[in-house]
Amino acid sequence: MTLYLVVGLPGAGKTTRARELEVAVGALRLTPDDWLRAVFADDDPEGWRAAERVAHRDRIEGKLVEVGLRAAERGLDVVLDFGLWGRDERSALRWIAAARGIHPEVVYLPVEPAEQRRRVAARYDAGPGEFLMTDAELVQWQEQFEVPDAVELAGGAVPPVPPPHATWSDWASARWPSLPPQVG
């Protein structure tokens, strides 16, 4: 089974690609934005910025990772449509998947800033409830985003876990508080 890690910034086409994979390989697609919109439907377009919503997103993602791993162990390919901006997030998920006998695959979708702005604006204009994003945030996020390197994209070795964590599983449980430790 394969755990697809869909990586990219807002407007890169992650959810479109995740939906394509869902259909092409018969995968279970897990997208936290879908859950946030459903659970917090009364939020205004800026409500997702609140510290409480950030914490909710982290907990939702942790449960989706847990469900995705269980589904993959039971014979389903899984698509995590999270963005996964940080190398450590991707490393943790690659390590956990491999430790469970699941093939992790990083699917990176780059986007140029002008195209990103166009897509984000069009999405917001077309859909009520879409997350509102400013130009300043898009610039900041471009700077924060850690582009996957050739080793990650080729499925190469996972780097060592950063201190003080003993394993990537420990790191992941700290990153996603609702995710129980997976494997030693």
Report on this model:
- The protein has 184 residues and is of the alpha/beta class.
- The protein has a single domain (2-174), classed as 3-Layer(aba) Sandwich (Rossmann fold), CATH 3.40.50.300.
- It is built from eight helices and four strands, in the order βαβααβαβαααα.
- It has helices at 14-25, 32-39, 51-73, 87-99, 113-126, 135-144, 150-153, 168-175, and strands at 2-7, 28-30, 78-83, 103-108.
- Strands 2-3-1-4 form a four-stranded parallel beta sheet, sandwiched between helices.
- α2 crosses α3 and α4 (87-99) packs across α8 (168-175).
- The longest helix is centred in the middle third of the chain and has 23 residues, at 51-73.
- The two termini are 21 Å apart.
Keywords:
184 residues, Rossmann fold, four-stranded parallel sheet, kinase, alpha/beta
Summarize the helices and strands and which ones pair or pack.
Blueprint (H helix, E strand, L loop, with lengths): L1 E6 L6 H12 L2 E3 L1 H8 L11 H23 L4 E6 L3 H13 L3 E6 L4 H14 L8 H10 L5 H4 L14 H8 L9
Parallel strand pairs: 1-3, 1-4, 2-3
Helix pairs in contact: 2-3, 4-8
- What is the domain total for the residues? 1
What share of the residues does DSSP label as strand, in percent? 5-15%
Give the CATH level 1 class. Alpha Beta
Q: Which CATH architecture would you pick? A: 3-Layer(aba) Sandwich
What Rg, in angstroms, do the CA atoms define?
16 Å
**Biggest sheet, open or closed, and with what strands and sense?**
4 strands, parallel
CATH H level, superfamily name: P-loop containing nucleotide triphosphate hydrolases
Structural category: alpha/beta
Q: What is the averaged pLDDT score?
A: 91
Please mark out the parts with pLDDT under 50 across 5 or more consecutive residues, or reply none. none
Number of strands: 4
* Approximate helicity band: 40-55%
CATH topology title: Rossmann fold
Q: Which strands sit side by side, in order, in the main sheet?
A: 2-3-1-4
Q: What is the distance, rounded to the nearest whole angstrom, between the alpha carbons of the first and last residues? A: 21 Å
Tell me the series of helices and strands, N- to C-terminal: EHEHHEHEHHHH
Morphology call: globular
* DSSP summary: helix tally: 8
